[in-house]
Design brief:
The chain has 21 helices and two strands. By secondary structure, the protein is an all-alpha fold.
Length: 450
């Protein structure tokens, strides 16, 4: 009986997280891209100017600055998906999938623009009287009482979907593969428990300090990890400079190659776009919770800042991962889908003796940054569902689940979490599409004066 239930949950998760989620996020994002007048293309320079502008960060209606909100949101999205997800996209869709990841990033930027704007426009007070933001408050304050069940729907599934079970499990697997197993150390439950406790301790030091400590750490760690990753890939590019023109030529030519027919082009496009949508989380609702904590009091300015996120995670970081894998060429004829192993193999092939260790350092940064921000999302949903006085309790549950994830085979648990994450997108995209006209009206006033 339990096996049948587990199998049914897994099948449902695979279905919902497949094309239904893809069409919801990409289809809705394309509408917002067109409806906004291609905001992610026309106003990227305005985004950077808004990020530098400190005049709107003095409001007392928030806890952190817009820049800290952006860095914290990026910290949650720049994770394992930027490495393993890109390798999987290349394995399934070939080099052309990267082009469609870039297209998806442009679409995601438009979605994030509306998320950021609405998170400021429709803040609401929690049970302690403090202003909060996020999809649940956008629905409650922007759509009214009859839509309130949808707000609870979002918060309930976000409580589960933002647990970092998969990230912890992949991190532990990576450590055992690269370090402990080659050293002759047996991969025992006791070893995994020890690693889980160590990971939990590091995460606890940050998240128990609240959103201000999380944002402060993220503001430091995100620029550092992206810069270090850029330098690592730049070294590979310099050492293989003669292959770079061919790499980018393959991305563009295979994005539209008709060798496999129209169906092949569509499959490549869907693979790349879907992976990017999962990486940048545009339309899922996580960004609205983080940007809702911003002290910025101008919705459009916050939206412009929010849309920088997909440009960095789905645009820059995913490209940095793709280049070494395409140079190495080890993604072709790969048995099964083992994204992280493909990436590790590519870096070791191009930087013999230390490449996989250098990438593992990046994996540590990416995994921990995600864990820090995700804890805040869960705490915010606990606040909404059970009251501000109980919000702090979520952190202890979150830390406990980190240890559990390191030790226990995941199976159905991951399917439940993936399904929950996907279901977060339904109320988020619904609220964005219904409230988009209010954002567009504010856009006209803002850009008339800027």
């Amino acid at each position: 009986m339990l096996d049948k239930i587990s199998s049914a949950i897994t099948e449902l998760s695979d279905f919902v997280c497949g094309y239904p989620l893809f069409f919801l996020l990409i289809g809705g994002g394309l509408f917002l891209f067109c409806y906004s007048g291609a905001v992610s293309l026309r106003y990227l320079r305005s985004s950077l100017a808004a990020l530098r502008d400190r005049s709107s960060a003095t409001s007392d209606k928030g806890q952190i600055s817009s820049a800290q909100a952006l860095m914290s949101a990026i910290a949650s999205t720049v994770g394992m998906g930027n490495i393993a997800g890109v390798a999987i996209a290349l394995t399934v869709g070939g080099p052309g999938a990267i082009f469609w990841m870039w297209v998806s990033a442009l679409v995601g930027m438009s979605t994030k623009f509306f998320e950021g704007a609405l998170s400021i426009l429709y803040k609401g007070r929690d049970s302690a009287g403090e202003l909060q933001g996020g999809t649940m408050y956008i629905i409650r304050e922007g759509l009214g009482r009859r839509w309130r069940p949808l707000a609870y729907f979002f918060a309930t599934f976000a409580l589960i979907g933002t647990l970092c079970v998969m990230q912890v499990n992949q991190l532990v697997e990576s450590v055992t593969t690269v370090f402990t197993t080659p050293a002759g150390i047996e991969n025992t439950p006791q070893l995994r428990l020890l690693m889980g406790v160590c990971i939990g301790f590091v995460v606890a030091v940050v998240i128990l300090g609240g959103i201000r400590r999380i944002s402060a750490i993220s503001a430091r760690i995100v620029p550092l990890m992206v810069t270090c990753y850029m330098l690592l890939v730049l070294l590979i590019i310099v050492m293989n400079i003669d292959k770079i023109p061919g790499v980018f030529a393959s991305i563009f030519t295979e994005a539209f190659s008709l060798k496999a027919g129209i169906g092949g082009v569509l499959a490549t496009a869907l693979t790349g776009a879907r992976r990017a949508a999962y990486v940048n989380e545009a339309g899922v609702g996580t960004a609205s919770m983080m940007h809702g904590a911003s002290r910025n009091d101008n919705p459009i300015r916050e939206g412009l800042i929010a849309m920088i996120g997909p440009a960095i995670d789905s645009g820059l970081v995913c490209t940095l991962t793709a280049i070494p894998i395409l140079i190495a060429g080890n993604y072709a004829d790969c048995e099964g889908i083992k994204g992280l192993y493909i990436a590790l193999g590519a870096f070791e092939q191009l930087l013999p003796g230390y490449g996989q260790y250098a990438l593992m350092v990046m994996v540590f940064f990416f995994a921990f940054s995600t864990m820090f921000s995700y804890s805040y999302y869960g705490q915010k949903c606990t606040n909404f569902l059970f009251g501000a006085q109980h919000a702090y309790k979520y952190n202890y549950f979150y830390l406990f689940m980190i240890v559990v994830a390191a030790v226990v085979p995941l199976g159905t648990v991951v399917a439940v979490m993936d399904l929950s994450f996907a279901l977060m997108a339904l109320p988020t995209m619904t609220s964005l599409l219904l409230l988009a006209p209010r954002v567009k009206a504010l856009m006209k006033d803002y850009f008339r004066n800027h």
